[in-house]
Amino acid sequence: MSKNVLAVIDMQNDFIDGALGTKEAQAIVADVADCIKKALERGDEVVYTRDTHFDNYMDTQEGRNLPVPHCIKGTAGWEIRDELKALQNNDTKVFDKLTFGSVELATYLKTVDGLESVTLIGLCTDICVISNAMVIKANLPEVAINVVENCCAGVTPQSHQNALEAMKMCQIMVR
Question: Is the pTM of this model over 0.70?
Fold first, then answer.
């Protein structure tokens, strides 16, 4: 029996309409919710990542390079969007990550018996989605990795497209 996992990457308020929000991120929320609902109906596991920073964000390397405090743990901006959080249950795994890609997510996926595919959706295509896709690909080279184009948004439309093309070159299927 195959096992498929849907990874919802950083669908947090600060990336949607908060400190780093964009109209493109706002536009995918309904599609992301539909994708999650379909995965749950198929019996796929759905996991989430959550970009997580702290009050010292501006003192970190990321903070010096992107001086916009965001996703500070415990704030409304750090929370996963309400309509997506409503699709979680008590068993839903949420991986807090301190950087772009989640080693913990990849490590967890290595423990999933019969894992056949991982599909990624969320934000931002050109930073955290691509980073997680590459970390997963490096750790699970024989598992099919997919990205749903209309359920992702980048910092800009052009950087979104660039990231999709880069992932295709690394044998990540974009659909």
Answer: yes
